[in-house]
Hints:
alpha+beta, Alpha-Beta Plaits, 2 domains, five-stranded mixed beta sheet
Amino acid sequence: MRKYWVLFALMVVAKDANADVWRSIASEVTMLAMILFINLLFFAVLLIGVFVHSSKLKSVTERHALDAQHDFLTKVLNRRGFELTLNSLDTREGYLLIVDIDDFKKINDSFGHPVGDRVLREVAEVLKRSLREHDLIARLGGEEFIIFMGTRDVKEVNIISNRLITSVNNHGFTVTNDRTPLSVTVSIGVSKINLIESDLDTSYKAADHNLYIAKQHGKNRYVMC
Length: 225
């Protein structure tokens, strides 16, 4: 009988020993799982951070590229933006308009550059509102703007050219906040453009020549021939 009690005691001790072993293993496994979870969590946070940073960097890069194609004062396209956009269009034929603010130097000399800058911004806005939605407008520099109209309808070009002149005339520019009126007009030279047969420079020279004629004939008008 004593032999059985000894055997039973040994089995209890072995069972307790095995339980301790399994508890130790379970504890180690739990610790490893926690470490793995923390590492995975850190890796996920790191990936999210990289993604957010890349998105911000892409957004900033795109914004800078967009800013580089726009005039900082008037917010319309600049020359580079105009040429890039024009070259990306499916329409390769139409009309080119060169718009110049009449006697702009006198405005700057008489009232100062802040007034001149405001006139430039307002003229740009008036011109944009007077064009069709898909027409292109850009500031070439100084008081000169360029417009591309992708149409072969000369009657429509005449109507819009006249609208541009009239809209600037009727805008109601002012010198200062006291609403002192300021007379502002524009002259426009118009030429055909066909980017399949010639380049932008050729059409620009033709439009610029017509602008010169408009200036010579009293300003505040457009010339197309």
